[in-house]
């Protein structure tokens, strides 16, 4: 968590990689503009945009093509694995509710997850090996150009000037990359897709947002992150989208550390807790 906070989400890191986000959004905009009146798969284009932006920060390169007609086998493989993981993770599993049945894997979900894990492991191993070769060609004093370079340096050196201590293993690096990719791509793209859907359902809101953009930004350039402070209506749209369509409607599962009572409800130690964020946000 500390490594991610310092090297990915700190103010300096966000500023250093702002050009990546800007370039990927510009690529998305060009793809939409070039389509003209031809229908597009907006969800797919948004997923390409968010995944490539994250990949360039983490790996120093894109993992998807720009949504054109050319096929990228590695990108397609990665996308299919992420989609399969989302489906399996959300599948009803008898073993989750009747633990003794978990040993038998009656639905085959555990077996599928193990096969998927092996595919992810091979995919991430290839990325690690490729990055090691690239890093070996750089001088030891070269500045890290992406997050994976930082992780590999911490693995080799065990500590750095930012104070991280303890050597990382390849398994920990792969786990961190997988967590960031799966948690940061589909959630982001689906939330933006919901924002578009709500704007299309409410054309008067869309018109008001366009008027604000024309007034503040004009029609000769794209919106930049520095413009956001001057776009309060757009900010309100973003916040309302988060309220109506949280990326994790039931949040992440929590485990009760100790038995306790809350508002008359007894929660035993070890119980799995789910917070209904979707319902809370829609409670007047």
Automatic annotation (TrEMBL):
Its cofactor is heme. It comes from the Eukaryota. Pfam families: p450. Keywords: Heme, Iron, Metal-binding, Monooxygenase, NADP, Oxidoreductase. InterPro entries: Cyt_P450 (IPR001128), Cyt_P450_E_grp-I (IPR002401), Cyt_P450_sf (IPR036396). GO terms for molecular function: heme binding; iron ion binding; monooxygenase activity; oxidoreductase activity, acting on paired donors, with incorporation or reduction of molecular oxygen. The keyword Nuclease does not apply. It comes from Ipomoea lobata (Spanish flag). Belongs to the cytochrome P450 family. Gene3D superfamilies: Cytochrome P450. This is Flavonoid 3'-hydroxylase. Signal peptide: none annotated.
């Amino acid at each position: 968590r500390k490594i991610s906070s310092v090297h990915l989400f700190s103010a300096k890191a966000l500023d250093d990689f702002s050009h990546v986000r800007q370039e990927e959004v510009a690529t998305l905009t060009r793809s939409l503009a070039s389509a003209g009146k031809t229908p597009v798969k907006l969800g797919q284009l948004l997923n390409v945009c968010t995944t490539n932006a994250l990949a360039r920060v983490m790996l120093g390169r894109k993992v998807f093509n720009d949504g054109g007609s050319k096929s990228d086998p590695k990108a397609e493989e990665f996308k299919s694995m992420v989609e399969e993981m989302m489906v399996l993770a959300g599948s009803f599993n008898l073993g989750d509710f009747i633990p003794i049945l978990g040993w038998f894997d009656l639905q085959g979900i555990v077996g599928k997850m193990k096969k998927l894990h092996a595919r992810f492991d091979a995919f991430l191993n290839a990325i690690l090996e490729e990055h090691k070769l690239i890093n070996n060609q750089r001088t030891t004093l070269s500045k890290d150009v992406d997050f994976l370079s930082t992780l590999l340096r911490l693995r080799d050196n065990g500590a750095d000037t930012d104070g991280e201590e303890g050597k990382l293993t390849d398994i920990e690096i792969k786990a961190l990359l997988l967590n960031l990719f799966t948690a940061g791509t589909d959630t982001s793209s689906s939330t933006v897709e919901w924002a578009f859907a709500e704007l299309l359902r409410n054309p008067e809101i869309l018109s008001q947002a366009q008027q604000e953009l024309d007034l503040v930004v004009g029609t000769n350039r794209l919106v930049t992150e520095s413009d956001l402070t001057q776009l309060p209506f757009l900010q309100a749209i973003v916040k309302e989208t988060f309220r109506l369509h949280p990326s994790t409607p039931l949040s992440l599962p929590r485990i009760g550390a100790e038995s306790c009572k809350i508002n008359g409800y007894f929660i035993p130690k070890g119980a799995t807790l789910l917070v209904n964020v979707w319902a809370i946000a829609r409670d007047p």
